[in-house]
Amino acid sequence: MRTGRPLIAAAFAVAVAGFAAAPVAAAQGGLEVYPATATPGSTVSVDTTACGAQGTAAGDASAVGAGAFTLAPEADSPDAAGRFAVPASAQPGTYEIVARCSGGTEVTGDLIVSLGVAGAPGAQMPKGHVKTGVGGALGPDPVQTAAGVAALAVAAAGGTWLLHRRARGDGI
Hints:
Immunoglobulin-like
């Protein structure tokens, strides 16, 4: 038990240190992305309070393909804000947007790129069949569908007949 007490004390010290650091990180603020979900071709705004009053930051949206942008102080606000355009070639997914304050603080935020809402201007909606390699239950050709159903019926009847012969002892 002598080694157990020092280990418990060390674990407790680490836990206390983690809780003490958490309010500091929360007080610095993160990078807020508006809108959090955007479509290719739309403009996104970002802001943060982590840079302090009248602070500036260099933004990086290269993960989504938008490149660098600048965050500048907003009037009558502790926020530094900036904008960038989501490229029309952006693929759906979640991307990390980064801002580095002039004081050295780095904050991040997530941007979700989606295809868009059906009927929205410029929205890209999926088209065509899903190519899974398995095939569908009903094909576009009714003759092929009927042939498939007939083949399944013949296989079921043949299997039933073979099982019936085996149960009677006639052999196969």
